[in-house]
Each structure stands twice: as C-alpha cells, then as structure tokens.
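Troubleshooting log. The previous run stalled partway through. Resubmitting the same three chains, unchanged.
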Amino acid sequence: MSGYKDDSDEEMNVNQIEKDNEVLLDRKSHVQMTKTNGRLQVQIVTPGELIVKNASNALCGHGTFRDDQDQLLSSVCGIVERVNKLISVRPLRARYPGEVGDVVVGRITEITGKRWKVDIQARQDAVMLLSSVNLPGGVQRRKTNEDQLNMRSVFAENDLIVAEVHSRPNRDGSLQLQTRSSRYGKLENGVFVRVYAALVKRCTQHFHTFDFGVQVILGNNGYIWITKKTPVDENKQKSMPFYTSADADKNEAEVIEGKDRENICRVRNAILALQSQFLPIYPATILDVIEMSKGMESKEMTLPDITPLITKNATARIQKKMEEEDMEVVEGGY
Amino acid sequence: MIKISPSEKQFLIDGIKQNMRTDGRSRLDYRAFTVETGLVAQTNGSARVKLANNTDVLVGVKVEIGDPDPDFPDQGRLEVRVECSPSASPEFEGRGAEEMNAILSAMLRNMLQNARTVDWASLCISPGKQCWIVYVDCLVLDSAGNLFDALSIATKSALFNTKVPKIEVMETSSGQTEIEVSDDPSDFTRLSTASIPISVTLAKVGSRYIVDPTIEEELCMESRVTIAINSKGNICSIQKGGVSSGINPSEFNKMLQHARKIGLVLLKELDALLDKEENNDTSTKIGFAR
Amino acid sequence: MSKIEFISPEGLRVDGRRPQEVRKINYRLNLFSRADGSAYYEQGNTRVLAAVYGPRQVTRRGASKHDRAIINCEYSMATFSTGERRKSAKRDRRSTEISVVIRQTFESVILTHLYPRTQIDIFMQVLQADGGTRCACINAASLALIDAGIPMRDFVVSCAAGMIDGVALTDLNYIEDSAGGPDLPLAILPKQNKICLLQMDSKLTIEQYEEVMQMAVEGCKQIHAVLDAKLKDVTDQLVNKRKTLL
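Second attempt completed without errors. Output:
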C-alpha cells in the first residue's frame, strides 16, 4: 500500500527524517506511524534519544526537552506524538498528570484549614476547597466557621470520593477538585480497585452501569469504584445532593448480598485481569472478560494462567481497533 | 500506606459474613502460591515464594561454623532474621520496618526454634566447642497480605533446599581440633526438614474468621491467630496478635481445627512442589526474570 | 595457595571472557505491585532489584523544595548476597556512601525542575554480589525510573573497569575485583557523552588511566545498546496491544 499522505503536508516538514519511510499520519490520533512489513509501527524512543534535529520551531511537549544544540530529545521511554508543532512522548506508565474536567476517584488524606487534601495517585495530593463542595441542604451559601469545624462530618480522613478536576493546577502544581454536581460526593458500600492510570481511557461516560446491576466509576486517575446499582440512588440524590456521613446513620446502607455481591467480585476480578495483561479498561473490555469467564468461579479469574485466556476477546477487540484506520479520537492516556 | 474507609470496611465485613470475600474467595479458601528454590548462588539454600503473585518473599540460608549455645552444647543453632524491603512499601525505608521485622522474626523463631523441627544434634561438630549455625535471612519484597504464612512456607522450602558441606574433624597433636570443610560442591548433607511446620494464619473479622487475609482484610481484622502445623498434624506453636478484647475459647478450638485441616492440605501441596523443584535442573530456573 | 591466573595465555579471563567483554545481561521491569516503577537486573552473577516511588507527595514536611523534586536513595545488600554472610544490611558506611553517590548521579539526570514539591524514592537491593554492584544498581535504578515514566536527560548506564597484570579489563567480577588492582566505576550519559559518576581506587599512571577509562566507556556503551534494544522491544509488544490509549 502506498504511503498515505495527509493533505497537511506542511506539518510533516517538522521532521525531515521520516521522508524516506512510508509515513502514515493517522489524521485523527496524531500519532506518527510507519507501515513496515504490513504492521503498524509507532515510533518508540528511549531517554536521550533524538527526535528532531532542528527544533527551533517545534514546541516541546511532555516527555521531551531541548538541549543546548537546539535539538529535541526524549526524556522518557514511550511513543512519539505530534499535534501540529507540538511534539510529545507518552510513557506507558506514569503517575496521573490530571486534566481539567476529568472524573477522578480519590481518598481523603488530610483536613487542614478550609481544605481537604485528596490522594488521587498523582504527583501531589489534590486539594478540595470547602467552597467547592455542596453542603447538605443543597443550598449554595457562604461557608461559615461552623462549616469549617464540621468538615470532618462531610468528608473524613480515608473516605473515598468521586470528584471532578476543577481548574488549572495550583501554583505548587497540585490539582483542585470539586464535587458540585449531584453525581459527585462520598462513595459508600462498594469495592475500591487501584489500576495504572494509563489504562483508563478518557471516554464520555465514566459512570457506567452494567446490565447485571453493577455500577462502576472509572476514575481517569486509575482509581475505580464498584458498587451495586440501586434505582433508589436517583431519588436520594435528587432530594439530597450531598450524602454525608451524618446521613449514613439515618439511611443505613443496604447490605449487598448474593448475586449482586458475586457480580461485584466478578467485575473487580475482570478489571484486575485486564490490568495484568496491560489492556485498557473500559466497559466494553470489562464485559468481554466477564463473558469469557462465565463458566468459572470469580476467584479463579485472577490466577496467572487464567488471565490470558479470559482476556483474549478483549485483546482481539483492542487489536481490531488498532487496525481500523479511521478510529474515533478517544484521547486516553497522556 | 494502604488505607480503608469505614464504609469499605463494612462492605468487606458483610462479604465475609456471607462467605464471599472481595476477591471471590470463601472464608477458608487459600490463594495459590508458587515456590522456587535454589535461586541465590551464594547461599547454602534459598527459596522464593509468591502468594497470589503479589506477596513476594525471598529466603536465603547460610550455614557457618561457630560456637554453640552454652545451654545446648551438643546441638547446632538457628538465627532468624526478617527484613522488609522498601520495594514492598515506601515506609519500610531506613528504620521504618523495624517493628514489622521484629514481629515477623519473632514469629518465625518461635516456630522453628524447637527441639523437634530440625535434627539439631546432627549439626553439632564438636560438643561444647563448635557447631553449625544456620542463618535464615528473609527478605520481604512485596506484600499483598499474609506475610506470616508466606514466610513460613519460604523458610521451610529454603531449609529443604539447604546443602550443608561435609566436614572432617581432626585432632592435631596439640590437642586442638581442626576442621576441614570440603571444597567439593557435590559433597554435602541435607537437613531433615520433614518435621518443619508451616503456619496458617486465621484472622478474625467481625464475628467470623478467615484464612490467608489480604492487606485490606488485615486492616479490618480484630485479631489474628497464627498456628504452626507440621506434617503429622501436630500443633507446634500458636501466636495471637491483634487488638481485640479476646477470643472465646470454644471458638478458639474451632479455629485450631480449621487451621490444622488447612495446614495439612498446604503441607501436602508444598511437599509436591518441593519434590518437583528437586528434580528440576538448576539451569532451567528463570527466577526473577520470569 | 596457587596464584590465580587472571589472564590466560590465550587472553581469556577466569570466566572465559575477553578483556573488553561485558557479562551477560538480563532484566525485567514492573515486578512489584506498589512501586511506580521497578526492575530486576542481572549482569553475570550480580543480581539486583530496584524500586522507584514517585513523583509523589513529600512525606517529611519541611523537606520539600519549592522548585524541584527531592531524590531519596537507599542502597542495601541482602545479608546472604555475599560469600561471607554480612552482619548489617543497611546502615553501614559503605551502603551509605553508595546511596549518596547514586543519589547525586540521578539528581543531575532526572528533570527534577518539572516536579517541584514532590519526592522521588529509589530503593536498590543487592540479591547476589559478584563484583560491580554499584554499577548494576545504577543500571537497575535507571530502568526502574524509566518504568515509572520519570523523565531523565539520558539513559544513564554504568560499568566498571580495572587493570590486572597490565591488562585493562571491563566489568570486573568479584574475583578480579579482589585482586587488588585499580577499580574504576563509571556512569555516563551515552547519547550526550557526558560522565555523571566517576570513582577510582588504587593507583594508575596517566596512560593506564586513559586506557581503563576508555574500557569503562566502551563497556557502558555496550550495556546501553543491550538495555535500549530490549526496552524498545518490550515497549513495542505492549504498545501493539494498547494503541487505543494514544
């Protein structure tokens, strides 16, 4: 197949090196690929490797840096990406860098002043201000001193929350979170799973409910929450946009049993199986694994000889997507 | 540091009550483990145990000639040491793991330092003067809970794998004893490890107890009982830890029965694995590169 | 006791290598469940583990730097790693010195200015020591940092060289190291051709020094080629499963 050249050839001039090879610019995913032996190859670089010789008009993205001779070098081991003049290298695994608008699951580590500090598997703990949180009663009001003293009754240390990344990072590099919408807030009565942040694709729906009654929240930061879907939740959230630990005593969490619990275990094990095979985690792949594991008990799903078997369909799905040339831009990873 | 919220704890406790733990196991289900022996060349014996792929411990055994314990002049002796590496958790850096190391070492020592576990008399070289000292050094590389059991399995495997060099004791003319250690690597004796027990840890969570807890389950447990069982089904040592107010004696008996049953199953499994390892050629071992 | 023949008449060393030959290398990444990056590295019979945490929140208040990440290094040898059992694993002087030296090496290479107010921990554990442990640990740490996605100026590699009976040798094993000749551990940034660690003990003439240095540099380049090739291969395999993440 002859080289497929995008009409925006000017962008390609940034790097003269690839002129000799057949270059395919997947126009939607911005990744520079070469077709060698009929197999798509991305450009993998290691730290210190040269990407562009003359980088005076290129912009250095993540994972790159400019040296004294104005060359653009890679600083990590990963895949080269180009968006117009911005060149960056994405490592396969890294701490969650954070993007505005991302849905994340976090654990409260500290309560200081008017803010909570939240661990979201990022380089620094994120910050959630008292003003970014909906208080019980739902009414937006100015926070009083009493609210400040009662912060612990809203979210206590070690509690899990689901929140949204609020605005640009603080001056010290930490992210800010907010839980203003009724979808966000404290998480109760379920299972927490930690995976590599890079495996959670950015997609439209981070709150997903499976047909068999399990709800997952796939945090972009690699923290995942699995619980039982309850229709009652909708009403609860409407009347009480904010679910606090004080309310927990009043509405005792329903004890999840039987088939529901087993399904939750299955979803958890499916997610861990996907992680062990380094596959992206999103509802379709989780379903693939669960389908393939129907015959076995959930505890067997995490055995090292079983995980490659049950993730076969998921792997095939991912590889199929790789071969389709016009893929949807689903910008997951970093 | 792994942390857990009160709500997650409740979910876990409910699951245990219903006999369905978070990973799908029932209360008395043990996770799968793998054993590899003979990985470290500079030791006299070594073993690596991986429990559920995430708990990783490496045990190295070295034997040296030294002074016997004055209370037991005609026996060899044992020195056990456990070290938790920061690769398991960043808080094990520097002195962070001291307390953990002490607890784990004490548990192992308690289990092994027993007249009947190893034939200590065979390790005596010259009564009152010299004997073999067996140094057992354990390294915890990664933890997903239940370090006690993993360490006991690894220790038994490492001791099984240990080759003690053959020696010749000679009396010189001046009445001094001289010891010559054989240089030949194929000239060795093995330790009799058939009586070495392994431990089974039962954790009390809520009103039930579970075997082989994960880290999250360990955070929810009120107390733990570690029971050492040998292949005859005898109970060799019992240790209770944890902050609960206590365990009912009748419940305790039930726990012992279960531990015994599970221990015997584990021992059989372990013996089969060790036999397989014996017959495996060392050159095919991949060790950590797998 | 017979004198060991370090170089045979045919020019072979005690383990059959040529003077400029580096030992066989093998490694594996991502071994531990909690560390952000980890590596198992073996060079001949020397086997080491490295685990990296970070960049993450600084644990000791007041230790954080407002303009860059702080690096924390710990080197330790397992008590069973050497021929004679070691008494102390961590806090003896040699381990502390090596920890400091390795930390300084990486402080100059990691792009710490990108992550102010964070900390990066590098923990190295020697499982089996057969000469060249500090070099093996640097290589393992480099791989672990790459595994954790932490940006560095270059792929730091390290190799030691020495001289016995007038012959310059690369990558000394324990027997050769104990021969009493000079030992020169070196760490370089291979693409930029810069030295980031250089130590030497015993004594050499300037000409001998040049020769041994050259051997060490060549050794580093050999190691870099091996590590780089395998890294690209492993990444490629993972990527071909994972492309939708881009």
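Takeaways: Helices of chain C lie at 93-107, 133-147, 174-177, 206-242. Strands of chain C lie at 25-29, 37-43, 46-57, 70-77, 118-128, 157-164, 167-170, 183-189, 194-198.
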